[in-house]
Amino acid sequence: MTQDKPANELNRLNGALEVLGLLREKLMLQRDELGAESAQEAVDEMRSQVDALQIECQQRRANLHPHHKSYQFVLTDEEVLPVRHDCYVKLLRGEAELSEFKGQTLRLADWYMFMQDDKPQEVVNETYNWLALDEFGRADLHAARDIQASPLPTTRERKEIYRRLFSQAL
Fold it and tell me: Are 80 and 73 within 8 A, CB to CB?
């Protein structure tokens, strides 16, 4: 398969996802305007079909680039804790919390890896950031930006991340 075929497919999928998103939004507005129960049921059924198509397109898009993957870790003073990517995204969106660390400031490691046969092979990029949590354990992105100290890991923490990635202990 040539390189432009996956790129073309990715562009088509991104376009389809954008259109499906707009269609879903329009259907939600129409449903709110309708009063009859049968009409709401019809719109809900159509919305479910659009949702299924969106999920299918997202999965197909993810399968086009299976050779890279991001792994996130929370670094505390005592340990290196892996964080599932979907949980990490929800945390940064404000949809999840780390209540066991409420009120603390932690560090976040994000390693972007080259994958082969669904196994990490090589580190492509590493980023480290502060993760300030409010009194409920929600990420406070504004407070994290104000921290002047370096969020870089210690040698021990970096070795532990490396061990976890390459031993597949995630």
Answer: yes
